[in-house]
Design brief:
5-stranded antiparallel sheet, mainly beta, 5% helix, 3 helices, 327 residues, 23% strand
Length: 327
């Protein structure tokens, strides 16, 4: 499988998948990947050709990946973004400047995504944990202060929860978003950005099980992994006393609303070759023409906000409509 780091390209209120053409969308996102990311992301345009750099470690991957942002809610009513850290684990440490880690996990012969392909996992408005498959979207309380000390078993198993953990013993919260692995073979997108794909049998980071007849084409399993460092917020005296959550995503909702967006942008057939040739982890792979860049190089690929507002530091309220105002 491929497993590699992507640093933050930009943090802003845009979402060209759900709200194309709109600036100051309903909630804040963190975006990684190719620097041709823009408000509209016209499917006719190829990010692989338009991007001059990528914030991901594979040079050939100009795709864009984005998620909501996690905030800490102080009992005085103010909010601050939870910092992020690189991810350790059995496969080794990845270095991120914000952002997330991306996995492409094949299960047998898979068909790589086509130019113009995009999809969405999760529902940003969902408030019911029971409507989320824990095997696909989950959170883990990481009670080690070091992300290199692996906690638990495979993603979305064991004591992992749909809800964002609210426990002072958590030093970090690992978020996992697993995308569908079955495609209808025809549509590169759909009106809800979900119905052209489907989850196969089974769940978790297994590469996906057998596909339904409606979606017979097996895709690589895309998985996002994010490490939110909540160490500085473990003092419960800072937490809200009115029963509201200490940790929320930028929609002011909990883990049930966690979601991830994906726009394909690998150069040529490099991803197909990577899957066919067993390219592994974040290593250069000559058989597929994959080359890597240093963390200093990919972290230097950034973009100015297209919806400018200062989202750093303590904020009076979540940026959801009105411009962000400092606390």
């Amino acid at each position: 499988m491929l497993r590699f780091a992507c640093s933050q390209l930009v943090v802003e209120r845009t979402d060209p998948l759900v709200n194309p053409g709109m600036k100051y969308t309903p909630h804040l996102h963190q975006i990684v990947g190719g620097n041709s990311f823009n408000v509209t992301m016209d499917p006719a345009n190829d990010p692989a050709k338009l991007s001059t750099c990528t914030s991901c470690s594979f040079v050939q991957d100009k795709s864009n990946y984005w998620t909501a942002v996690m905030f800490f809610h102080h009992k005085n009513g103010s909010y601050i973004r939870v910092p992020q850290t690189g991810n350790g684990g059995p496969q080794g440490k990845l270095i991120n400047k914000g952002g997330l880690d991306v996995y492409y996990i094949p299960s047998g012969k898979v068909t790589a995504f086509k130019k113009g392909f995009r999809m969405l996992a999760g529902t940003a408005s969902n408030t019911d944990d029971n409507k989320v498959a824990k095997g696909n979207i989950c959170h883990r309380c990481w009670d080690s202060p070091n992300e290199n000390t692996f906690v638990g078993a495979q993603p979305c198993s064991g004591t992992d929860t749909v809800a964002i953990p609210a426990d002072p013993k958590c030093k970090m919260i690992r978020q996992t978003i697993i995308f569908p692995t079955c495609w209808d073979g025809q549509n590169l997108d759909s009106p809800n950005h979900q119905s052209h794909v489907a989850y196969g049998q089974g769940s978790g980071a297994t590469g996906g099980g057998s596909c339904p007849s409606t979606h017979p084409v097996k895709l690589p399993q895309v998985m996002y992994e994010l490490m939110w460092n909540v160490t500085n917020f473990s003092d419960k005296s800072m937490w809200p006393t009115d029963g509201s959550r200490p940790f929320v995503y930028s929609m002011n909702l909990g883990g049930s609303a966690a979601h991830g967006d994906y726009v394909f942008g690998w150069e040529g057939d490099s991803l197909q070759k990577a899957m066919d040739n067993g390219c592994n982890l974040n290593n250069a792979c000559p058989k597929a023409g994959l080359t890597t860049q240093s963390d200093a190089q990919y972290s230097a690929c950034t973009k100015k906000q297209q919806a400018p507002e200062n989202v750093d530091g303590w904020l009076q309220a979540l940026p959801m409509g009105d411009m962000a105002i400092k606390a």
